[in-house]
TrEMBL record:
ATP-binding found in the keyword field: no
GO MF: oxidoreductase activity, acting on NAD(P)H, oxygen as acceptor
Protein name, UniProt field: SDR family NAD(P)-dependent oxidoreductase
Domain of life of the source: Bacteria
Family listed: Belongs to the short-chain dehydrogenases/reductases (SDR) family.
Keywords annotated in UniProt: Oxidoreductase
Record's keyword annotation contains Oxidoreductase: yes
Listed InterPro entries: NAD(P)-bd_dom_sf, SDR_fam
Source species of the chain: Candidatus Faecalibacterium intestinigallinarum
Length: 251
């Protein structure tokens, strides 16, 4: 069985990825600013779950967490950056610090994780690194540019690092979940019935963790939607914005 390390998995999609991976026999290390929701899983899988307080914005804490996880479970077979900071405000009402924080957590957090685990993976000549992206990073969307910008940057980073590390036997991938009913999406004015179930999404992503595809989705339908988004980004971005406004007006 494999050792998977995840940054940002105390709740939401990340939590259910962890739960599914543990249930299927893997060892999992979780780094997050809060780990309280993992207590029940820790009791159920005391020998295969390691959790530690760490901040995606703090390189030293990520380095420490990665080092300790390797001491416990050995080499990391897959590392996932799932930490997320999202705001729902337009550019006019978002100052520079808001953009900087989103970039620090979402983009530089992913870069910190990659630069920390890559030396170990290069030495082992194997491994995979996955960044959790978002459809809005492809299409754009109203009142979410700080977050969407970071996801667009993550997309480019993953492509570059995939090319640079292929000779080491290391692959890079993107998780592309749908709009999901999680804490980070609560500020989006969309009815809950329009949002996917986090357990369904988390389990699906965990089951597709070893996919050879660059873009990994939890279901075939989501994969088709993402493909269409890549082909017609602005059309989808404008359409989703209009649909969200209509849903908000009805509620």
């Amino acid at each position: 069985m494999a050792h998977i390390l995840i940054v940002g998995a105390n709740q939401g999609i990340g939590y259910y990825i962890v739960k599914r991976l543990l249930a299927t026999g893997h060892s999992v290390s979780v780094l997050d600013v809060n780990t309280n929701h993992l207590a029940s899983l820790q009791k159920e899988y005391p020998e295969r779950l390691f959790s530690m307080i760490a901040d995606a914005q703090n390189l030293a804490s990520i380095q420490d967490g990665v080092s300790q996880s390797i001491k416990i479970f050995g080499n990391i077979d897959a590392a996932i950056h799932n930490a997320c900071f999202c705001t729902f405000e337009n550019e006019q009402n978002s100052d520079y610090t808001m953009y900087q924080k989103a970039m620090n957590v979402n983009f530089f957090g992913a870069l910190r994780l990659a630069k920390t685990v890559l030396p170990y993976m290069r030495k082992a000549q194997k491994g995979r690194i996955i960044f959790t992206s978002s459809g809005v990073g492809i299409t754009g969307f109203a009142n979410i540019s700080p977050y969407a910008s970071t996801k667009g940057a993550i997309e480019s980073l993953a492509k570059c690092l995939e090319i640079e590390n292929a000779t080491y036997g290391i692959s890079f991938h993107l998780f592309h979940p749908p709009l999901t009913n999680t804490a980070s999406a609560q500020g989006l004015p969309v009815p809950k019935e329009f949002k996917a179930d986090p357990q369904t999404v988390g389990y699906g992503l965990a089951d597709h963790l070893w996919s050879k595809k660059f873009v990994i989705c939890h279901s075939f339908i989501q994969e088709l939607q993402i493909r269409f988004s890549y082909r017609h980004p602005l059309f989808i971005g404008r359409l989703m914005t209009k649909m969200t406004k209509r849903a908000e007006e009805k509620h």
